[in-house]
Write a structure and sequence with these properties.
With about 500 residues, this protein is of the alpha/beta class. The radius of gyration is 22 Å and the shape is globular. It binds flavin-adenine dinucleotide (FAD).
Length: about 500
C-alpha cells in the first residue's frame, strides 16, 4: 500500500473527530481501526444480551497490578467506546481549566484557558448536533453559540423529579445530548446509555464525524487493523514506521504524520510496548506515559418509591451541578449528578447476582436511577503498564471524600423529594468508561509527554489525540472535550504541517 500523508490509529471520538477536522485539506489520510462496524442484530436492544450475557465485551483480559485478570468494559468497534456512550456531550466548567482545590488534593490547571478553548467546544457541539438549552445550570460556562437543537424532552416521571428537585431550591438542568430521540426510539423502545448504536439514533464518533470525514475521497478507513507498535527513525526524533496486524499478516506503513487515537489505555500501551533507547517506550522522556490514569469516582443511586412506578423508557435527560464547585456549605467541590439510562431487572441482576429477579424487576420499575460522578485526581502511581501483550491496570482512586459527600447529600435530597428508599453502589474497576490522563499535555516536557497541541515533545511527527491527553478528569463526561481538542489540533495541523 502506498504511504498516506497521515495515519490515524483508532476511529473513536479523538480519531474520527480529527479526521473530520482534516477533511478537505488535500492530505491523504488512512484510519487504521482494530475493530469492525457494529452489526444491527436483536442483541443491540436486549438488556439480557448486553448486560447479562456481555455479548459486546471484547475477548480480551487485562490484569490488576498484583491481582486477578479481568475482562474490561472497553469496546473495539468502528466508533470506539462512543458506540456505547450515554451521549452526554457536556463542557468542562470554566473553573476546571484553573487549579482547583478538592477534598482529596489539587486538580492542576490546563495549559490553556477556557476562553481560548471555547470556540472549539462550540464547533464540537455543532459537529455532534448536541441537543440542549442554556440558562438553567448555575455552573454553565460562557457559550458563544447556543445549542442548535432543543433538549431531549423529559418523560413524565422525570418532569416530576425535576419539579421535586426545584422544590428543594436546587437547579436541575437538561443534559446536553447527542441523541436524535425519534430516530433512536424508532429502532426500539429502550434507553441508549450503554446500548450499542447500530443506527443513526446516537450521534457518536461513527455517525457524526467519521461519516463526514469519509465523504472526502482522500480519507479512507481500514478495519481489522490492529496496531502493535511504533518504530522511530535511527535518531529517535520521529516515528518512521507503524507496525500492525491485519487478517493475520504483519504490515507496515510510513506516513509523514502519525496520530495515535487508540483511547487513553491502548494509546499508552502502544507507546509503552514500542522499543526505545532507554527501554521505557516512546514519547516518554518525562516518564509520564501510562501514569496519571484517571477514570472518575462514580456511583449508581436508585431512588425508590414503592408506591409510584417509573415507566420512563429512556430517562436520561437531567443533571444537577449544585454541588459541582462546592459542597453547598462553602466547602470544596463534590461533583456532578446526572440520570442514568432507565435501569431494568436484567441490568440490576448483572450487578446483584444473589437477589431474585422478581425483586429486582420491582425495584427497577419503581426507581429513578442517578449517576454520581466525582473528579479523580492525577497521581503518577495510578497507572497503565504492559507486561508483554497484556495490559496491567493500577488504578489508585483519589478524592473519594467527594463521592462520600455527594452520596450523603443526594441521599438526603432524594428522601426529601419523597423517595423513602435510596440505594447506592460504586461502579467497579472493570469499567474504564471515562479513562483519561495517561499521555497528558502540558507546557513542561519534564512533566508531560505532549505539548498543548498534543504533539509529542520527543517525536515531531507524533500526535496523541484521545482521552489520554486530558490533564484532569473534571467531574463531567469526557467526550466533548476530547472532540473539541481534536478539532483544535486539526486546525493547528492545517496551519503548520499541512500549510503550502
Ligand atoms: C458505556 C459507556 C458510556 C459512556 N458515556 C459517555 C457519555 O455519556 N458522555 C461522554 O462524554 N463519554 C461517555 N463515555 C466515554 C466515551 O465513550 C469516551 O470518553 C470516548 O469514546 C473516548 O474517546 P477516545 O478517542 O479516547 O477513545 P475511543 O472512542 O474508545 O476510541 C479508540 C479507538 O481506537 C481503537 N483501537 C484501540 N486499540 C487499537 C489498536 N491497537 N489498533 C487500532 N485501533 C485501536 C478502538 O477500537 C477504538 O475505535 C462512555 C463510555 C462507555 C463505555
Amino acid at each position: 500500500m502506498a504511504n498516506p500523508d497521515i495515519v490515524i490509529i483508532g476511529s473513536g471520538i479523538g480519531g474520527a473527530t480529527i479526521a473530520s477536522g482534516l477533511a478537505g485539506s488535500g492530505a491523504s489520510i488512512l484510519i487504521l481501526e482494530r475493530g469492525e462496524p457494529l452489526p444491527a442484530t436483536p442483541h443491540a436492544r436486549s438488556t439480557r444480551s448486553i448486560f447479562l450475557d456481555e455479548h459486546y465485551r471484547p475477548k480480551e483480559m487485562w490484569r490488576e497490578a498484583g491481582g486477578a485478570p479481568f475482562n474490561p468494559g472497553n469496546y473495539y468497534y468502528v466508533g470506539g467506546n462512543s458506540k456505547f456512550f450515554g451521549a452526554v456531550l457536556i463542557r468542562y466548567r470554566k473553573e476546571d481549566f484553573s487549579e482547583l482545590e478538592h477534598f482529596g488534593g489539587v486538580s492542576p490547571a490546563w495549559p490553556f484557558s477556557y476562553d481560548e478553548f471555547e470556540p472549539w467546544y462550540s464547533k464540537a457541539e455543532q459537529l455532534f448536533r448536541v441537543r440542549g438549552t442554556l440558562g438553567e445550570d448555575p455552573t454553565e460556562p460562557f457559550h458563544s453559540i447556543p445549542y442548535a437543537f432543543k433538549p431531549v424532552p423529559d418523560e413524565p416521571p422525570i418532569a416530576r423529579a425535576r419539579a421535586e428537585l426545584k422544590g428543594l431550591g436546587l437547579h436541575p438542568a437538561s443534559l446536553p445530548l447527542g441523541v436524535d430521540i425519534e430516530s433512536w426510539l424508532k429502532e426500539g423502545k429502550t434507553g441508549w446509555d450503554a446500548f450499542p448504536n447500530t443506527g443513526q439514533g446516537k450521534i457518536d464518533a461513527q455517525t457524526g464525524p467519521l461519516a463526514e470525514a469519509l465523504m472526502d475521497p482522500n480519507i479512507r478507513l481500514e478495519t481489522g487493523a490492529h496496531v502493535d507498535w511504533l518504530e522511530t527513525a535511527p535518531d529517535g526524533k520521529s516515528i518512521a514506521t507503524i507496525h500492525y496486524t491485519q487478517d493475520g499478516a504483519q504490515k507496515t506503513l510510513s506516513p509523514k504524520l502519525v496520530i495515535l487515537s487508540a483511547g487513553a489505555i491502548n494509546s499508552a500501551a502502544i507507546l509503552l510496548r514500542s522499543p526505545s533507547a532507554k527501554g521505557r517506550g516512546l514519547a516518554n522522556s518525562s516518564d509520564q506515559v501510562g501514569r496519571n490514569f484517571m477514570n472518575h469516582n462514580s456511583s449508581a443511586m436508585l431512588a425508590i418509591d414503592p408506591r409510584r412506578r417509573n415507566d420512563s423508557v429512556y430517562q436520561k435527560t437531567l443533571m444537577l451541578n449544585d454541588y459541582y464547585l462546592s459542597d453547598g456549605k462553602g466547602g470544596k467541590p463534590l461533583g456532578n449528578v446526572q440520570l442514568l439510562g432507565k435501569i431494568d431487572g436484567n441490568m440490576l441482576k448483572a450487578n446483584v447476582k444473589t437477589m431474585p429477579k422478581f425483586v429486582l424487576d420491582f425495584m427497577a420499575g419503581h426507581a429513578v436511577d442517578w449517576y454520581l460522578m466525582c473528579e479523580d485526581l492525577p497521581d503518577p502511581e495510578s497507572r497503565i503498564m504492559v507486561d508483554g501483550k497484556e495490559i496491567v491496570m493500577q488504578w489508585r482512586r483519589s478524592n473519594m471524600q467527594s463521592l462520600e459527600g455527594l452520596t450523603k447529600v443526594m441521599r438526603e435530597n432524594l428522601r426529601a423529594c419523597g423517595y423513602p428508599i435510596v440505594l447506592s453502589r460504586p461502579f467497579d474497576k472493570r469499567t474504564p468508561s471515562h479513562q483519561c490522563g495517561t499521555v497528558r499535555m502540558g507546557n513542561d516536557p519534564a512533566t508531560a509527554p505532549l505539548d498543548p497541541f498534543c504533539r509529542a515533545y520527543d517525536h515531531r511527527n507524533l500526535f496523541v489525540v484521545d482521552g489520554g491527553f486530558l490533564p484532569t478528569s473534571a467531574a463531567v463526561n469526557p467526550a466533548l472535550s476530547i472532540a473539541a481538542q481534536a478539532l483544535r489540533v486539526a486546525d493547528y495541523l492545517r496551519k503548520t504541517e499541512l500549510a503550502a
